[in-house]
Amino acid sequence: MSSSDNDISMDEVGPHDQGQSDFKPFTVQENIQQLNAIDASIVKLMEHTSTSLNALTTSLDNASIGSPKPSVDPAAQKEAYRAATDSFLTTLHSIDVRMKRHILALEEAGVVDLAPKKKTDINEKPPPTLKPDGVGSVGGMDVGWLNSRSSKVERDMERELWDKTRNFLERDGDKLRHE
């Protein structure tokens, strides 16, 4: 694995660096700059994808109907693809690490809770809540399941249709017989 210019050798880490250091949280401006850098890296992912796909294809712009096929060097294509793929994976790893850092910072700040919900007993159900859980349950009851089992709406609609039909026939029934 290669090292970058920003890597710190373990020999360079002094005793003051290993323990408690002066912790200074990032400012809002620094967080926004870091998120903008992540955004720019995501754009670079798309560029690396495009480069790797272009390395695998032949250009149609150079090939016209009367001219011979453009010469393609398979070794050069393979090297361009490998370089673009390596850059893609390096950038993807960088984005992954930076996003994890931001998510953990949000958890540390109490903005999100990533801890799994603890259950004291395997068979014990969590207490019902009136907040929707995001999958169609409210208060421990699946609203969709309850609605699908009820025929009240269907009966009401059927009754309404029969009433409309009866009113129509009473009002215009004589006209229909004469036609």
Automatic annotation (TrEMBL):
GO terms for biological process: regulation of transcription by RNA polymerase II. It holds the Pfam family Med11. The keyword Transcription applies. Residues 1-26, 119-142 are annotated as: Disordered. It is found in: Nucleus. The keyword Transferase does not apply. It comes from the Eukaryota. Keywords: Activator, Nucleus, Transcription, Transcription regulation. Belongs to the Mediator complex subunit 11 family. Component of the Mediator complex, a coactivator involved in the regulated transcription of nearly all RNA polymerase II-dependent genes. Mediator functions as a bridge to convey information from gene-specific regulatory proteins to the basal RNA polymerase II transcription machinery. Mediator is recruited to promoters by direct interactions with regulatory proteins and serves as a scaffold for the assembly of a functional pre-initiation complex with RNA polymerase II and the general transcription factors. This is Mediator of RNA polymerase II transcription subunit 11. It comes from Sarocladium strictum (Black bundle disease fungus).
